[in-house]
Amino acid sequence: MSVFEKQSRVEAPVKELFNWHNRSRTFERLTPPWEKVRVLERQGGIQEGGRVVLEVQQGPFRRRWVAVHGDYIEGTQFVDEQVQGPFAKWVHTHRMLPETDTTSLLSDHVEYQPPLGFLGQWAAGRYLHRRLERLFSFRHTRAQHDLKRYHPYAQRPPLKIAVTGASGLIGAALTVFLSCAGNEVRTLVRRRPQLDSPEIFWDPYRGELDKASMESLDAVVHLAGENIGAGRWTGPRKEAIRRSRVEGTRFLCETLASLRHPPKALVCSSAIGFYGDRGGEEALTEESAAGQGFLPETCQTWEGAAEPALKAGIRVVNVRTGIVLTSLGGALAKMLPPFQAGFGGVMGSGHQWMSWISMEDLIGVYHYLIHAETLSGPVNAVAPRPVTNRDFVRALGRALKRPTLIPLPGSMVKALFGEMGQALLLEGQKVLPAKLESAGFSFLYPDLESALRWELGK
Q: Is the same domain home to 377 and 230?
């Protein structure tokens, strides 16, 4: 029998720490992006007799992991024990103990036994210990980060928040994060929800939305829109991108403006594409003028489509998002395979600026903007230290411990990806988060090296 233990100090009262673990979607927050785990079923939470069924990836195979909860002590402890899964035995005791009025001790004690007895222990013992150390380091850090974000609002009542685009890369992470804060999160979907479902039906192209379900919300987060990096920008593709953002936003805002009890805030996605290709060393803030071209024009019209909500007295925030760093999707996920194989390198000249933000900080920005009553209009959601493409490539190579000697010439980018490649890979802008920094927002990962290490589990 092997034992793994980890204990950390968390800068939050023990009640907040326990309540966070007691929420239904905290397991998703505790699962690192490199662990291929999916929740298939939940029953009863972490209380005595609760049950969770997972699907875990082991090499090319998928296995079920069924765990039951027991030894529940309100505010202090719960245990999960594997009854079916990859281990011969797994008993995980979670403890949360008060240290001071404002700090807690988070303790994990795992008794485990790999399959095949002594042979399994001999073959996989060290590997499993390293894997558990990596997993629980991630879990303890994430607990610390989330509670730091939640703490300023812990004494306020939970919010009712509706989210469009909740199945997308950002939306999926954000809805989990908001739910784990104790909020009531309702997602807008384009299929008819089942009875008693918290989902809200809408079809922006047909002008359909369940208005009654939108009454008396505290905030709406609008993320829906076609993925601009999903393929070459043909004429029909560009029209689909523009229409999904402009028409969807306008319809949503007209609906919100017509409600008897509209939300106090609308936090609406936009992009730093608003500024266009600027080159050089020009630092761009929210006060900078728009650029020219397809993306700047789309972003301007997109942000302007929120005018009905603004006129109705709703606080509107346009979140101009930079390159989002996450290994689960987007630009970084597409770059990882060639870089991991040692075929990464500078794109084009390498001098183009990349204004980026970690996924961890981006969902923190949305959470902050929902609450920040003094912030409205455009807000740049980027880290405070943009880098050139050449510096980004070097940092990624260092994080992966791979060479970055094979460049991708601009002519090849244009041949492979057309106008989309030109705009997203060869052009750039040096964007700064002036409003967020002025308001006192705290970035967990302000520099690229630490952001990449976190997102890649390095």
A: yes
- Please check whether residues 125 and 18 belong to one and the same domain: yes
* 326 torsion bin: left (phi>0), alpha (psi -120 to 50), beta (else): beta
Sign of CA dihedral 393, 134, 183, 435: negative
Domain final position from 128, 152, 176 = 152
Pairing of strands 283-284, 430-431: parallel
For residue 72, pLDDT beyond 60: yes
Question: Do 165 and 142 have their domain in common?
Answer: no
Structural domain total, the chain: 2
Which residue shows structure tokens 């509209």?
262
Q: Give the model's pLDDT for residue 58.
A: 77
The H-assigned helical ranges of 328-358 are 330-340
CATH of residue 57's domain is 3.30.530.20
Mean pLDDT score of the chain, rounded to an integer? 92
pLDDT tens by residue, 317-357: 999 999 999 999 888 998 999 999 999 999 999 999 999 99
Residue 36 has pLDDT above 70, yes or no: yes
165 and 239 share a domain? yes
Are 110 and 251 contained in the same domain?
no
Mean pLDDT, range 142-168, rounded to an integer: 95
Which residues are CB-neighbours of 83 under 8 A, at least 6 positions away? Answer: 66, 67, 68
My answer on whether 165 and 147 are in the same domain is no
Report percent pLDDT > 70 for the chain: 98
* Whether the predicted pLDDT of 123 surpasses 60: no
More confident residue, 435 or 412: 435
Strand order in the sheet with 219-222: 208-209, 200-203, 184-189, 160-164, 219-222, 265-271, 315-321, 377-381
Report the CATH number that the domain containing residue 344 is assigned in CATH.
Answer: 3.40.50.720
Name the band, by pLDDT with cuts 50, 70 and 90, for residue 73: very high
- Domain coverage including residue 259: 156-456
Q: Among 152, 170, 198, which residue terminates a domain?
A: 152
> Under a CB-based contact definition with an 8 Å cutoff, are residues 312 and 266 in contact?
no
> How far is it, in rounded angstroms, from Cα 37 to Cα 84?
15
State how far the Cα of 188 lies from the Cα of 223, in Å rounded to an integer. 10
Q: What single DSSP character describes residue 199?
A: -
In this structure, the answer to whether residues 12 and 128 fall within a common structural domain is yes
Distance CA 9, CA 107 (A): 9
Residue pair 450/443 in contact (Cβ under 8 Å)? The answer is no
For CA atoms 272, 415, 390, 292, the dihedral sign is negative
Domain shared by 75 and 207, yes or no = no
Residue type, 453: R
